[in-house]
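Lecture notes, continued. The same structure-token format from the folding unit now serves as the input rather than the output. Read the line below as a description of shape only.
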């Protein structure tokens, strides 16, 4: 589950970067958006650096907060939109789903083992009760 949480933070980071750039691109007052006002980023700190060489546009993605916030507003808006619809975002989102599915699979296996153990105990006590009942009938 720790890996799923880490992957989810990568997705949240992308969303926060997109929001911060969208606010900047529209010239809105950042102090009105306390959740992202002091948010900074650096692509070098990403959990999974993304290789853009296989993609036709080589990605229009964030670099660092200082560089991205110094860009012209129209380019900031394009980057914000690209972040939420590009391959990196979908790849990061897929990693979260993979980790969650693995967690669910392990949880299901654990549940099945515990149910089987409980059923085995129930069967044992049913057989034991028949044996005890049979012995009591034989004695009386």
């Amino acid at each position: 589950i720790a890996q799923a949480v880490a992957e989810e933070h990568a997705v949240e980071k992308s969303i926060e970067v997109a929001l911060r750039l969208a606010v900047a691109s529209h010239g809105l007052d950042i102090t009105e958006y306390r959740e992202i006002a002091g948010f900074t980023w650096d692509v070098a700190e990403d959990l999974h650096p993304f290789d853009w060489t296989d993609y036709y546009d080589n990605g229009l993605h964030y670099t660092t907060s200082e560089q991205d916030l110094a860009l012209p507003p129209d380019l900031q808006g394009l980057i914000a939109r690209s972040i939420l619809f590009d391959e990196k975002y979908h790849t990061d989102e897929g990693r979260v789903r993979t980790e969650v599915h693995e967690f669910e699979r392990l949880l299901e296996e654990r549940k099945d083992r515990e149910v089987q153990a409980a059923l085995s105990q129930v069967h044992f006590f049913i057989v034991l009760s028949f044996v005890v009942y049979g012995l009591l009938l034989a004695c009386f």
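Point for the exam: The radius of gyration is 28 Å.
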